[in-house]
Automatic annotation (TrEMBL):
Lineage, top ranks: Eukaryota, Fungi, Dikarya, Basidiomycota, Agaricomycotina
Limits of the Cytochrome b/b6 N-terminal region profile domain: 1-44
Name recorded for this polypeptide: Cytochrome b
InterPro entries: Cyt_b/b6_C, Cyt_b/b6_N, Cytb/b6-like_sf, Di-haem_cyt_TM
UniProt keyword list: Electron transport, Heme, Iron, Membrane, Metal-binding, Mitochondrion, Mitochondrion inner membrane, Respiratory chain, Transmembrane, Transmembrane helix, Transport
Superkingdom of origin organism: Eukaryota
Protein's membrane topology: Multi-pass membrane protein
Domain Cytochrome b/b6 C-terminal region profile: 45-114
Entry's Gene Ontology cellular component terms: mitochondrial inner membrane
GO biological process annotation, one example: mitochondrial electron transport, ubiquinol to cytochrome c
PROSITE patterns: CYTB_CTER, CYTB_NTER
Compartment(s) where it occurs, according to its Swiss-Prot or TrEMBL record: Mitochondrion inner membrane
One example GO MF annotation: metal ion binding
Transmembrane stretches, start-end: 16-37, 58-81
Length: 114
């Protein structure tokens, strides 16, 4: 009646998590190739290909600004406020003889045996 995870499940889970980044990278490359070949919608609203903005340097620069802004915010969090997103329970020394109060057994463990 219990839930168990077998070796086959773990192998499939590991395989999925190993292959997923490569699949996503391949999709990104395919997307960039499609953008380079067919182009994207233009912000001018014209149907002519002559009036379109080229992908490089305009859209490349726009994306790089966003990436650098993300890394700036990430760097500020990491170097100046490393504990901002952490939990205060991480500073309690480990005690193997005491279960943390936040860990509560499931309902079927707490039944009375008379």
């Amino acid at each position: 009646g219990g839930f168990s995870v077998s070796n086959a499940t773990l192998n499939r889970f590991f395989s999925l998590h190993y292959l997923l980044p490569f699949i996503l990278a391949a999709l990104v490359v395919a997307h960039l190739i499609a953008l380079h070949t067919h182009g994207s919608n233009n912000p001018n609203g014209t149907a002519s290909s002559a009036d379109r903005y080229s992908m490089h340097p305009y859209f490349t620069f726009k994306d790089l600004v966003t990436i650098f802004l993300f890394f700036l915010v990430l760097s500020i969090l990491v170097f100046f406020y490393p504990n901002l997103l952490g939990h205060s329970d991480n500073y309690i020394p480990a005690n193997p003889m005491q279960t943390p109060a936040s860990i509560v057994p499931e309902w079927y463990v707490n039944r009375c045996h008379a």
